[in-house]
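Milestone 3.1: sequence recovery, worked example.
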């Protein structure tokens, strides 16, 4: 299952949202891929965004 579909299923499990609303919200997400090991944030980092971590093979 791709990242967009996983996020959509998460939204649908927790709220009611139309496809149009989801597409609007999804436009604000940015898919980033990281190799195993590095930290997304470290102590003292200023965090100006939120992360949703999902293993998508």
């Amino acid at each position: 299952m791709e990242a967009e579909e996983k996020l959509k299923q998460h939204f649908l499990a927790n709220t009611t949202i139309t496809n149009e609303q989801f597409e609007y919200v999804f436009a604000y997400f940015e898919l980033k891929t990281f190799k195993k090991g590095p930290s997304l944030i470290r102590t003292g980092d200023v965090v100006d965004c939120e992360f949703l971590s999902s293993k998508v093979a």
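The chain has two helices and no strands. Helices lie at 3-14, 19-26.
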